Amino acid sequence: MIYEGLTNLFDGGSLVMGIAEEIEILDDCTYIFYLRESKWADGSPLTAHDFERSWKEALDPDFVSRPAYLFYPILNARAAKQGLCPLSKVGVRAIDDKTLKVTLWRPTPYFLELTAYPAFAPCHVDGHTTNGPFSLEEWRHNDMITVQKNPHYWDEERVSIDRIHLMLITDEMTALQLFEKGEIDWLGGNTSPLPLAALSDLENSKLLKWAPTAGTNFTTFNTTILPFSNKKIRKAFACAINRDAIAENVAQKHDIAAHSLVPPVLKMGRCHHLTPPAREDEARRLFAEGLEEIGGEFPRVAYSYFSTEMQRKVAETLQSEWQRVLGVNVELQCNEFITFLSILKQRTYTFGQMCWVPQYFDPMTFLERLYQKDSFRNYTGWEHPEYIRCIEASHFENDQMKRNTKLLEAEKIPADEMPIFPIYHFQMAYVQNENLQGVMISPLGEVDFRYAQLANKSGQE
């Protein structure tokens, strides 16, 4: 909203030009971006040098940047972040004010999709001046963020809304009541979820809208410790769960049962049944065999999850099913999200419940997270040599259909090994003022108001 990179991902998964006006791909590893005439919100010129400086700052070993790993396909990016080579060796160079050259160390078929991710947007030297369709006007902590139309945005003529007020409301029902009073024009998605109890009434009143997004809710097993270092026990816990019933009766109405880790949205709508179906007899057999392999006694285990209404409902359902099918008493352990995320990263948990949303529009956005045991967001500690081989082979496949086949081949391996048990793929539920038109929602769940219009409201505010 307030920043723009070289490209943008719009609704339907279309990748459109942002600050880049033209892109030339010289070979599998060399990209030339020709920049359009554009300015920062203060009116100063934005140049290719801003991109070079910003990307290299993200790779500075002293600069904390969680998504820095997304730059690693770039030549020497990983080494620079680890302090093993100077930033001057990183394969990003401004040839002149309007030309940016990027050199990769290996082919990356999804590199252009990466450039739409916010981490690839330029940052001003002052740290706060922005370049997107809107700029920050006011930030009242724990209350409201206000952004205003950026008069220096290159496509300013197509931006209709003058000002957007982003209200910070922690209670979901309070936010919905404000929408019903006409004080909020758009509500929903991952950052402002609708109350689960209200979804049915909203659907019946035809206010509820849905957007296909690429998100997966799943169980993650810590494979580095007992009992879930045992493959059969992991598979037993998975086979005990009826995902279709959870998607239909527990999750939101339009969520779908997950039979693979990667959502269909990221696979051109294809739904592959890779993980084993719910089979209670098979679950009990695997559990008995796994118990014998680990010594015959199942330890006390806690199932961790983060504190939202939906996550609690799913966790309680799983707890009940594991008791019924396997006879296992599972303790539920709830934490607020930041604490929970720390538990996962440090692997100080036994098994738990998490959800992933993609950072870029390609199956690799999920698959790369299991690439190696120390990969970013690999909470499981799982690693498999054949999986690594499949992932690496996919980088060098130029034919998209053949690449998709290689990625599917890779995805089958964790579907069998079960370090992660996908439960359901979730969609975006939202409501919006009937006079608000042109809001774009990307498959990643990003909401874009740049070309939106609000009729019958003075000043488009």
Radius of gyration: 23 Å
CATH architecture of the domain at 213-426: Roll
SS elements, strand count: 20
End-to-end Cα distance, whole Å, is 15 Å
Tell me what you see in this structure.
The chain has 461 residues and is of the alpha+beta class. It contains 13 helices and 20 strands. Strands 10, 11, 12, 13, 14, 15 and 16 form a seven-stranded mixed beta sheet that branches. A hairpin with a 3-residue loop joins strand 7 and strand 8. Helix 6 runs antiparallel to helix 8 and helix 12 (385-395) runs antiparallel to helix 13 (400-417). The radius of gyration is 23 Å and the shape is globular. The mean pLDDT is 95.
Keywords:
20 strands, 28% helix, seven-stranded mixed sheet, D-Maltodextrin-Binding Protein, domain 2, alpha+beta, globular, Dipeptide-binding Protein, domain 3, 461 residues, four-stranded antiparallel sheet
Q: Any chance you could write out the topology, listing elements then pairs?
A:
Blueprint (H helix, E strand, L loop, with lengths): L6 E3 L5 E3 L2 E8 L2 E6 L12 H11 L18 H5 L10 E5 L2 E5 L7 H4 L19 E7 L3 E6 L13 E5 L4 H9 L5 E3 L10 H6 L4 E13 L9 H9 L3 H7 L6 E2 L22 H15 L6 E6 L2 H18 L3 E6 L1 H10 L4 E6 L7 H4 L17 H11 L4 H18 L2 E13 L3 E2 L2 E2 L5 E2 L4 E2 L7
Parallel strand pairs: 13-14, 13-15
Antiparallel strand pairs: 1-2, 3-4, 4-6, 5-6, 7-8, 8-9, 10-16, 11-15, 11-16, 12-16, 17-20, 18-19
Helix pairs in contact: 6-8, 12-13
